[in-house]
Structure formats: C-alpha cells, structure tokens
C-alpha cells in the first residue's frame, strides 16, 4: 500500500546512496523500490536512478535525483528522539562521521545537506518542566552544546 503522504527529498544524483545510509543507520528504516528514468532529463540520462522509495524510522520518503538546482536547508529536518547517551552518540557520530557537519543544540547535517536533530528525550522533558527556572537551566546548558550531553542536561535541570 502506498502512503497517502510521502516526504520527497531532492538529491543531486545521490538518492540511492543516501537511502542506503539512512537504512543502515536508523532503526525501522529500509530501501524500497528504485526507479530508473525512462528517458533523458535535465539532471540525468535514460536508465539513471531517478527516484528511490525508502523509509526513515518508519516515515515514508522518496529520494528524487533532481540535480544540483535545489539544496536542503534547516527549514526541514528529521528530529530523532533518543533514549540514552549511547544512542545519541551512535546516531550523531554516524551522521557527522560520514561526511556530515556539526551544528548547535543537537543539530547536525549529513553529507547530502539534510538536517537532523538528535534529541534525547530527557532534553524534551526538561523543556516542558512546569518549573520554568529548571527548564531554563536545561535550555541554557543545551545552548552551549553541539551534540547533546545528557548528563550535563540532567545536572543543569536538577540545579
């Protein structure tokens, strides 16, 4: 069954490589059908990979090899909730270590330009704490980080 809503992600010829990386890195992720162009198009030739169906953590996606004209931005990102520091480290290091780039506050960008928020659940819990002073302490600690350090967030949250 085809999903009624699929996220379409634009790539410059690397949709299959990206889909394979996501499937190897994230749980509940897989590469599905690979569709080849039936004719020449501005970004490729007949027979080139045109689209790739894949899922990322259960979210249906379509990778489109549309060429170099459109770039990813932080206006779209995948936010991945992590349960512990080991999971946070594994996902962060997989993205950054595979040609990606660190950004602030738990954000990073993969080598294809797609943004990811690797967000420990404890960070989200701290932000919604009714004790707004404690929430601000956790928020202020996060503002100094690239990859989130759960122990530091918990210490700040507790005060």
UniProtKB/TrEMBL annotation:
Q: Kindly give the CDD domains that the UniProt entry links to this protein.
A: PhnB_like (cd06588)
Q: What species does this protein belong to?
A: Collimonas pratensis
Query: What is the designated name of this protein?
Result: 3-demethylubiquinone-9 3-methyltransferase family protein
Q: Where are the transmembrane segments?
A: none
Citing just one GO molecular function, the answer is: methyltransferase activity
Q: Ranges for the PhnB-like domain?
A: 4-119
UniProt superkingdom: Bacteria
Q: Does the keyword Transferase apply?
A: yes
Pfam families associated with the record: 3-dmu-9_3-mt
Q: Kindly state a single biological-process term from the GO annotations of this entry.
A: methylation
The alphabetical list of record keywords is: Methyltransferase, Transferase, Ubiquinone
Carries keyword Cell inner membrane? no
